[in-house]
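ok posting inputs for the uracil job
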Amino acid sequence: MLSRDDVFEELGIGPVWRLREAAPATPPATQDSSFATWEQLADAVAHCSRCKLAATRTQGVLGVGDRTADWLFIGEAPGADEDRVGEPFVGQAGRLLDAMLAAIDLKRGQNVYIANVLKSRPPGNRNPEPDEVAACRPYLMAQIDLIRPKLIVALGRFAAQSLLDTDEAIGRLRGRVHRFRDVPLVVTYHPAYLLRNLPDKARAWEDLCLARRTMREA
Ligand code: URA
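and the output
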């Protein structure tokens, strides 16, 4: 999912793309009260035409896992594999994410829910655009409301900056516990980034340990 530019931005080099321009600074809880149930939310995502991605995606990718999970992992957007299968993180990055989960005794679908900031694939794996993030935001907020996780793990610069409404580099956001609407939030590197930057796996392991400690204290 990450482009070459993303790798530099993951490292805090280069211009930072501001989601703030489109997303409200302090988002209200659920912005669309019509998502009272998972069925309503799933139906809305399946038929969504809120942004231009509706014209190019195969299907909306809501998320996968335990809908009452304590752990919520949030990535960027579906890639080609996810767009085809209809599930987040099913490609190579997904396999690494599963290994990261296993490293802290977690398993996809068991007390774990996996979602993305965007529910539709940006064509050619380009970066999500601010209007797309803004259009999709109510879906993610509704997911958080329905799941009521004890901990959120933001996977990568895009999810972290989007959720925390900041342009701080991921290297500065990781290593501490943030809060998103009263839910503790830990930032770590995106699995796709880690596939290309093996030395940062050690840092990701530290982040996962921080997440596990935070969960134990929650
Ligand atoms: N990258 C993401 O951020 N999400 C996916 O679902 C797949 C790859």
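notes: Residues 7-33 have pLDDT under 50 and may be disordered. Residues 1, 75-79, 82, 88-89, 93, 116, 192 surround uracil (CB under 6 Å).
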